[in-house]
Amino acid sequence: MMDSTWFNNDHQLIPGKELFRSERRFHLLAYAASHGQLLMRSIGQPGTPGEPETTIDLLFKPAAAVKIRDDYRGLSIRCATAAESEQVKAEYASVSFGRGDRVFVLESQGEADYVVAMAVGWKEGILSRTRQGSSTTSTPTDRYGPASLSPGLTPASISPRPRNSSTHCRLKRTPLSAGSVTAGSTSS
Predict the structure, then answer these.
(1) Using 50, 70 and 90 to split pLDDT, how confident is the model at 120?
(2) What is the DSSP string of the chain?
């Protein structure tokens, strides 16, 4: 069983439209600065009664700015309204957002966070115990791939924070070389 979705076109990303909803628990798994990939996961527990069998990987790419928590219990993702987009982008006056950068609102337990990226997608499937995850070298529409993450995607370094705390990151492309990214973050 495998299900996947990828949103990256204007006709798919309508302001205010809900794109994803799940009551499952999701955690920040990895961020790859080289490709601006932000990966969140809900782990499946095949064979465990009362637990979901499937694993869901959520991928945002390329992420230009984020305000997220490392753990969500229940999660919905929607396209920000025009007013919400303006407000979020105004917080990052030093960042030059591209025409294709969109604000995705992440809502969980009455709180809202966001990721500014060009696309979001997910895939859901049953992973064998020997596989760590899906191949993240391309879009989530690919089938579950090799047993490890791609070389550019490493587990995120997450320091323990009180529940419901969030991390703000602003990522900007620098003129040093094509595709280079710098990041600064603060916790609140």
Answers:
(1) very high
(2) -EEEEEE-STTT--TT-EEEEEEEEEEEEEEETTTTEEEEEE---TT-TTS-S-EEEEEEEEEEEEEE-SEEEEEEEEEPPHHHHHHHHHTTTTS---TT-EEEEEEETTEEEEEEEEEEEEEEEPPPTT------SS-TTSPP--SS--TT--B-------TT--EEEEEEE-TTSTT-EEEEEEE-
